[in-house]
Amino acid sequence: AQRVTQPEKLLSVFKGAPVELKCNYSYSGSPELFWYVQYSRQRLQLLLRHISRESIKGFTADLNKGETSFHLKKPFAQEEDSAMYYCALSGMYSGGGADGLTFGKGTHLIIQP
Amino acid sequence: DGGITQSPKYLFRKEGQNVTLSCEQNLNHDAMYWYRQDPGQGLRLIYYSQIVNDFQKGDIAEGYSVSREKKESFPLTVTSAQKNPTAFYLCASSRRAAHGGTEAFFGQGTRLTVV
Predict the structure, then answer these.
(1) Could you say which DSSP state residue A53 is in?
(2) Whole-angstrom Cα distance, residue A33 to residue A91?
C-alpha cells in the first residue's frame, strides 16, 4: 500500500521568509512524487514533479529515498504563494501497470504581508 | 481552460437515491480518476481506470460504481449504499504509464449534497 503524509494542516509565514512544506511517503517500490497546488477558486494543478528536477515559481523539492521524504521549499515566500498544497505519489504494480495517484491531506499555506 | 469537464457543478440528492456525476475529457488520456475531497481529509481515491473497459477500486470505493465504456468518459454513480455521500468530487485524467512524471489534469469538481 502507498501512503503520503503531510504533517502540517496549516503553515503561516511572513512574506520574504523561507517556506518548507513537509511530505513523507510510504511505498515499497519505486515511487514518483509530485506537488500539486490549488489556489483560491482555481482547479488543482501540478506544481512540480521530482523526475523533472525543476524549479517552478521559485519552489523546489528533492526526493530523499533514505528519509522517504519530498519536502517542498522556497527561500523567499511571496503573498501569491498562499494556497493549498498537496503532495502526491504515483506507484507502479510489479507487473508494470501504473497505480492510482495517492494524495496527502494537504497543507494550507498562508503568507502574511 | 477546458480539457476535462465535470457536470453538474452542484447536485442535490434525496436520501436513498442513486446519482451519477459526469466526467468528460478531450485530452486523449488513457487514465482517469475519481477523488473525494472532504475538509481535513485531502483527496481520497474512489476509483481509477487505466484503459477503456477496465477500472480498479481505490481506497474508498464502497457505495460507488463507475464505468469506462469510452476513452473520454468516466461517470461516477453514488449509490444509496454510500453512507456519507455529501462531499466535493474531483475527476482527473492523465496519460497512461504514469511513470515518467505524468501530470494529472483535474476538473472543476462537483459538490454533491444529500438533502
Answers:
(1) T
(2) 9
Among B99, B86, B93, B114, residue whose Cα is nearest residue B23: B93
Does A6 sit within 8 Å of B98, measured CB to CB?
no
Give yes or no for a contact between A103 and B42, defined as CB atoms under 8 angstroms apart.
yes
Please provide residue A11's backbone torsions phi and psi, each rounded to the nearest 5 degrees: -135, 125
Does the pLDDT of residue A37 top 80, yes or no?
yes
d(CA B31, CA B51): 6
Show which residues on chain A lie within 8 Å of chain B, measured between beta carbons: 6, 9, 32, 34, 36, 43-46, 49-52, 86, 88, 90, 92, 97-106
Q: How confident is the model at residue A76 (pLDDT cuts 50, 70, 90)?
A: very high
Does B99 contact A at CB distance below 8 Å?
yes
For the record, the C-alpha cell of B10 comes out as 452542484
B74-99 residue pLDDT tens: 999 999 888 899 999 999 998 865 45
Residues A67, A52 contacting (CB under 8 angstroms): no
Nearest C-alpha of chain B: how many angstroms from A14? Answer: 23
- Per-residue model confidence (pLDDT) at position B103: 81
